[in-house]
Amino acid sequence: MTTDDLHGRPVIIGGGIAGLMTALHLAPEPVVLISKATLGDETSSTLAQGGIAASLGSDDSPDLHLADTLAAGDALCDEATARRVVEAAPRAIEHLERLGVYFDHAPGGTLLLGLEAAHSRRRIVHAGGDATGRELVRALAAAVRQTPSIAVLEGVEVRHLFVEDGEIAGVLAVGNGDAITLSTGPVVLATGGTGGLFHHTTNPLGSFGQGLALAARAGAELADLEFVQFHPTALEGPRRPMPLISEAVRGEGAVLVDERGRRFLAQTPGCELAPRDVVARGVWRQLTAGHRVFLDARQCLGPRFAERFLAIALLCHEAGIDPAIEPIPVRPAAHYHMGGVAVDAEGRSSLRGLWACGEVARTGLHGANRLASNSLIEAVTSAAWVAASVVAASPGVRKRLKPAIVPPRPDVSRIRPIASRALGIERDGETLREAAGVLAPIAVGHDAASDPALVALMITIAALSREESRGSHFRADFPQRDAQPRSLRLTLDGTFEAAAILADTTSASEALLDRMA
User: Fold this and answer.
1) In 3D, which of 248, 252, 209, 246 has the Cα closest to residue 231?
2) Cα 411 → chain centroid
3) Catalytic entry in 9, 123, 276, 427
4) Distance CA 254, CA 312 (A)
5) Beta pairing class for 293-296 and 255-258
6) What CA dihedral angle connects 389, 393, 396 and 402, to 10 degrees?
7) Which CATH superfamily is domain 3-191+338-392 in?
8) 450-465 and 210-218 are packed helices; what angle lies between their axes, rounded to 10 degrees?
9) Residue 430 carries which DSSP code?
10) How confident is the model at residue 516 (pLDDT cuts 50, 70, 90)?
């Protein structure tokens, strides 16, 4: 099969769990799945250790799962979306098992359920202890390769979306140095998150938000971009992406201590299992005060550490650490983006013909702070609704695509220092305004840094506009939480208008809010 045979098919961009599941749900409809790397490589999905949240225990229910989700989301979740996801979660686990995913089971044969931060019950389903994402991708990739209706293009990167008469008309991609143009109706973005914008990240370094840049430049609305979740416990060291020390380790009783062994979160409600934004800020403040931070599992796990968390134990041993007998040095790292392409309940964006699924989408499930292990279940459940919506959509009329200049391969290296300084765990208006002034000229250019600069600029403008501290967004100059929660939407034009205002004045808050309301 050549690319000439693929014109007119729906196109899914992204080879992680969201993209794989969407393609499988679309079968037997012919679709094209485009993956920047070989399936299973260079995706955040593969690196996911924690697991999948679902109310499967006898003491649990979707209502309890919903309550925990809403509490973590800090009054910014879409309750209808959250209820839909948590109610679909148990059936989704069964579906994954039918697709060949091997989950961990207790000796009696029931699924083994773990505990993570801000969950009131044990409801985290794991695979291979701390290798859940890898196992899901393995099984789903195998299922995709066995499905004749799915044409997989690997090592291909989408650089541009064609838009004609206000709707998606096709994609421009690059593979093996050659440009590939596909005319299509529906396009599904499943491109993951934005962690690659930061020095300290658990995401693949290429995950800088390419899907957000594609959507924004095509004219779609984005929402709540300021909410970036930092995982509190990444393994301190030079390796990038940073190895994750799963929250499940804290769920088993591991504690956070400084270099003197002092448990500095002991007086915090929830202690080490407080919401992630609380724990991440606690760790960050210790580091900025000159302390070191360690995760100590010696008492709760000790010699059983490798039995329970084999992959993490191997990562620690590679770094010269034996977690059975010594504490693990950790620091926060950019981990998950709650904001994204603004979509409705079926994953449709504001632009006709464009859907989004997984981390690139802002569904409203996570609000201002993602509840641990809700991301994989969102990708799995939403994929079914996105696929059904794509099938139900009227097929677009195939149009002749206009010639387009192929944008260069994105390079984040110029942008990473700017984003890391301005968009970290604690933010302030002055630093954000400085960042916007640097990022805007790069974002309007046409070089390798332009798309990463655009994504960072949009997050910066959103962070400036939210003059409060809520969930994962903390403003040192606005530490209080507003009484009235609100979601903020942003477009490409609105971003550049806001940046222009900032270039003229340093007191542009009201104008920014008017453009983003």
Assistant:
1) 246
2) 19
3) 276
4) 14
5) antiparallel
6) -30
7) FAD/NAD(P)-binding domain (3.50.50.60)
8) 80
9) H
10) very low
Contact predicate 327/250, CB 8 Å: no
Active site residue 240: no
Least confident of 236-250, 361-375, 396-410: 396-410
Domain at 232-332, CATH class: alpha beta
What is the residue extent of each domain of the chain?
A: 3-191+338-392, 232-332, 409-516
Mean predicted confidence (pLDDT) in 90-113: 94
Could you tell me if 440 and 498 are in contact, meaning their C-beta atoms sit under 8 angstroms apart? no
Residue 29: exposure state from Cβ atoms within 10 A (0-12, 13-18, ≥19): middle
Contacts 24+ apart (CB under 8 A), 108-112: 111/56
Distance CA 517, CA 501 (A): 16
Q: How far is CA 270 from the centre of its chain?
A: 24
Cα separation, 516 vs 400, in Å, equals: 35
Closest CA to 183 of 397, 22, 409: 397
Answering whether pTM is above 0.85, one says: yes
Give the C-alpha separation, 484 to 207, whole Å. Answer: 33
For residue 91, the SS3 value is helix
Query: Tokens 């485009």 map to which residue?
Result: 34
Q: pLDDT, tens digit, for every residue of 60-77?
A: 999 999 999 999 999 999
| Residue keyed to tokens 């002055």 | 430
Class of domain 409-516: mainly alpha
